[in-house]
Amino acid sequence: MHDPTTLAARRIAEEAGQWLLASREGLDEASRVTFVNWLRHSPAHVAEYMAAVQLDQDMKEAAVREPVAASVLIAQAASEPAVVALRPGAMSPARRARSSHVAGRARRWPWIAGALTMAAAVALVVLTAWPRQDAPPGIVYTAPTDAVRSIDLADGSHIQLDRGSRIRVDLGTAGRDIAVLDGTMMLDVGHRSGAPLTVTLGRSVLRDIGTVFQVTATPGTGEVIVLSGQVDVMAPRDDRPWSWTAKSASQVVAHLKAGEHATLASDGSLTHLEPHADLSTDLAWLPADIDFHDAPVADVARRFNHYGQALLLIDDAQVAGMRISGRFHARDPSGFIAYLQTFPGVQVRRDGAGTHIVRRGHGGAAARL
Amino acid sequence: MSDSPTGLAHVLLEQDGPLHRYVRSRTGHAWDAQDLVQETYLRLLSADPESIRNPEAYLFTVATNLLRQRAGGRQPGAREEGGRDDLLERLATPCHAEADVDRDVRSKRLLALMERLSPKCRAVMLLHYRDDLSYRDIAEQLDLSVHMVKKYIVKGLAACRQGMARYA
After folding, report:
1. B164 contacts on A by Cβ (under 8 Å)
2. Which of A193, A197, B36, B115 gives A208 a disulfide partner, CB atoms 3.0 to 4.6 angstroms apart?
3. Looking at beta carbons, which residues of chain B come within 8 Å of A140?
4. Which numeric CATH code is attached to A139-282?
5. How confident is the model over A197-240, as pLDDT tens digits?
6. CA nearest B151 in A: which residue?
7. Which domains are delineated in chain B?
8. Separation CA A75–CA A70 (nearest Å)
9. Nearest to A288 by CA among A325, A327, A329, A326
10. What ipTM is given for this predicted complex?
11. Interface contact flag, B1 A151, Cβ < 8 Å
């Protein structure tokens, strides 16, 4: 298993991985030259780096299939001991030399050394196994201050997070909750999970009904803008731990439809409802371009639908599943539509619901978004 | 597995990865993997290191051009590209039905390999690749340093890389 050849291959794989991460973060002049020289050192380095790039892409595709909740992963990681006990005889020569000196002193009071070792072991187990009581469930995503962050969740939801914004995501089998802690989030709700989805905004809770909507949290107020589908605004939550149940369905205080913009006060009450939101202003923070790599046409169309334009509806399953890469102007879907029309049989129809992409002789709505 | 250029090149292109599919779609059959890596490497050696602004893009551009030259020369089974295919080429669009099958197999293998990682390493990998958390966010969630998070990703990638090689 650990023969020199395998170990050498492992070392090159790790070096390739280090350069991959460094490249993703951006290389300065000196690092770039060092990286090129590393590649020039051997064809094995070239092959391994290209394989690392390939693996990096494959990992993204594989990881989304893993159903284990993030909270479970975090708990499992916390239970892994931070210190691994050394097996007798497995110590390095240098460390063995140092420890023999300490052992010599400890031998004078062996019972004290033994007791201290036992106490340290117990403390280690308690510290690593004790759950973190202060952290609410879920994982926190933060957008950098200088760029919009795009996040794909395991349930198929797509989130765009404005600069400096923060959210906490808790995806469970019984329910999904996204808390907007600060700033603005655009949420395109995914349907890989059948669990109900709520969005927590201060003391308010929003319930999704198959939707794309934007939520903004600022000190004192909250804003909700619905682009498609419907959102229910629930009654303000009290200070007790709260969860939505079927029994509390009567607590809905407002049904928001596409194009509506609601303002909520800090106490959770609805203070203003604008039936025709100014989307050009409200969505101005979204990126000007849509970048995608090896993504299904259906997912790309969803991204265009975040911009408040006529909905792009991919009605043909085969077109919806085709994987493409590229970059288009987000606020001008005509280039993307023209591109789709280059595929054999693809036609465009427009009606009140939006722009439909269909194929001649295939009127099915299986892949409709 | 061997770390010789031949061994690594074989692993790189002979397994059912995207690069292999890319090669096959453009040449009509599997390109000689060793030749591609060797030729890419020789182009790299002959280039001025200072002039390579983006090493990763350089590698893949050279490899793609080599494939294109090869496909344009004498492959009777190669696909003719023009019109719509030109556009696909420009957008680097892989649209092949068999790709979905390959993807499925590779994803299952990678998930099985990730199961074997230590709990911390597995958590870091999934929070990074599935949940799209930044290094800083992962460090905060797992009470690690950002340096350790990167180290776990490198270790995890290398372990999966070697595990995938054994499937080849």
Report:
1. 55
2. A197
3. 137, 140-141
4. 2.60.120.1440
5. 999 988 888 987 768 888 888 888 899 999 888 888 887 765 44
6. A18
7. 1-95 (no CATH), 99-168 (1.10.10.10)
8. 9
9. A329
10. 0.74
11. no
Domain spans in chain A, listed from the N-terminal domain onward: 4-63, 78-135, 139-282, 289-359
Exposure string for B21-33, b = 16+ CB within 10 A, e = fewer: bbbbbbbeeebbb
Nearest CA in chain A to B163: A10
What is residue A155's three-state secondary structure? coil
- CA A330/CA A303 separation, integer angstroms: 8
Q: Please tell me the distance in Å from A61's CA to the nearest CA on chain B.
A: 7
**B122 interface with A at CB cutoff 8 Å:** yes
pLDDT digits (tens, 9 = 90+) for A61-101: 899 888 888 888 999 999 887 654 444 434 433 444 444 44
- Can you read off the two tokens belonging to residue A273? 């409802």
Within the 100-159 window of chain A, which residues sit less than 8 Å (CB to CB) from chain B? 139-142, 150-154
Beta strands in chain A (DSSP E): 139-142, 149-152, 158-161, 166-171, 176-188, 197-201, 204-218, 221-234, 252-257, 261-265, 270-274, 289-296, 312-314, 323-329, 346-351, 354-359
Class of domain A289-359: alpha beta
Residue owning tokens 């990682």:
B117
